[in-house]
Amino acid sequence: MMEKTRKHLLCLAIIGALSPVLATQSYAQLHLEITKAPEAAPKIAIVPFSQDQSIYPIVENDLNRSGRFTSASKNLPATATLNNPNAEAWASAGVPYVVTGSSKTTADGSFEIQYQLYDIEKKQYLLNELLTVPASRTRQAAHMISDAIYQALTGIPGDFTGRIAYVLRNPATPEQRYTLQIADTDGEQPKTILTSRDPILSPAWTPDAKKIAYVSFETKRPAIYVQDLATGQREKLASFRGLNGAPSFSPDGKSMLFTASMHGNPEIYQMNLETRQLQRMTNDSAIDTEARYAPDGKSFIFTSDRGGSPQIYRHDLASSSNKRLTFRGAFNARGTLSADGKKLALVHRPSGSNYRVAVQDMNSGVNNILTPTTLDESPSFSPNGQMVVYATREGARGLLSIMSLDGRFRMNLPSETGEVREPAWAPK
């Protein structure tokens, strides 16, 4: 039984760890499907912006998929314009917040967008801002507006301007069976980073979100590459004998953790990215894999079967000591930490059950199953820690799902072609 478990984990290390195309090519749109929304959420009216038909719908969709608000731009009970919120009418209609705006083209072809957020109860503007953006960045401007509104009303930075990396698998196109892509968090504006007939696994962002590392089997053996998103240039970081997988960058971007089996057993190694010097971080007869730096850079978490089953441990860099973090369930792996280091998301399998995403409080150790789906894998926190994206299956579909930590909101991001796997939310 022990040998079976160890082989399972070794497979996990390879799968969970593992001709460049410039990031300008679009490919395989993801389609947003809201599957669960709060029954009662504060209303916010998005009044159609004057001289605009593209920006306000994005803001409306963003706020609706936040799980914190119910926003609408159609069948509104009252009117409003810039500097004229018509507060009494909205108060009578029971709508506490109103967004108004306008958009116009400037002489140089850019867009000038003004928007206001009005608090009906307080009778004051919470936001009154002017944005000037190139015509090609109006969608990003809309997400920036959503971020600002979300933060003004919740005190938490919004993540609508963020991006998610993922891998598409499409057996119908053998020469391009695997595709590494990035897209907005609503699935729009997909960009292809790499296509290959061989597996692409474990995308990992650098802290500045300008590069992505991944594992490629294009040479028939796993190797870790890092690719610049602006130029498409890439560099091979690790191609040692045996396994090379599960890259993770330190918060300062100066080092990388990865799994390698160059000496026979899968262990965690740290690479100095300036000198390429290696340091072996674990040395155990068990299989150690899936290392992820803590946000403060003073420790990392990893998966190991040293206790008899796959569990998550923390390695302190100063003392080189290891501490087991998970105890519930027969299987805990694929751990990742929230940006504040307070939450641990992981793949959890209770005894006799399927694989689910759970979130564990790092202080109390309390572990709560988050997802209602099964066969879940690869959880990744949003930068503000309010959402988790993960890969799952619904029937014959392999898709991404995004769920709020309070469990009140969930949406799916399936692809029009193929399966979507290995999500990684970009840092901010």
Automatic annotation (TrEMBL):
Lineage of origin: Bacteria, Pseudomonadati, Pseudomonadota, Gammaproteobacteria, Moraxellales
Major localization listed first in the record, in broad terms: periplasm
Gene3D superfamilies: TolB, C-terminal domain, TolB, N-terminal domain
Any Gene Ontology CC annotation: periplasmic space
Keywords: Cell cycle, Cell division, Periplasm, Signal
Similarity-based family: Belongs to the TolB family.
Protein name, entry field: Tol-Pal system protein TolB
Any Gene Ontology biological process: protein import
Chain's role: Part of the Tol-Pal system, which plays a role in outer membrane invagination during cell division and is important for maintaining outer membrane integrity.
Signal peptide positions (record): 1-23
Gene: tolB
Assembly notes: The Tol-Pal system is composed of five core proteins: the inner membrane proteins TolA, TolQ and TolR, the periplasmic protein TolB and the outer membrane protein Pal. They form a network linking the inner and outer membranes and the peptidoglycan layer.
Compartment(s) where it occurs, according to its Swiss-Prot or TrEMBL record: Periplasm
NCBIfam families: propeller_TolB
Domain spans labelled TolB N-terminal: 31-124
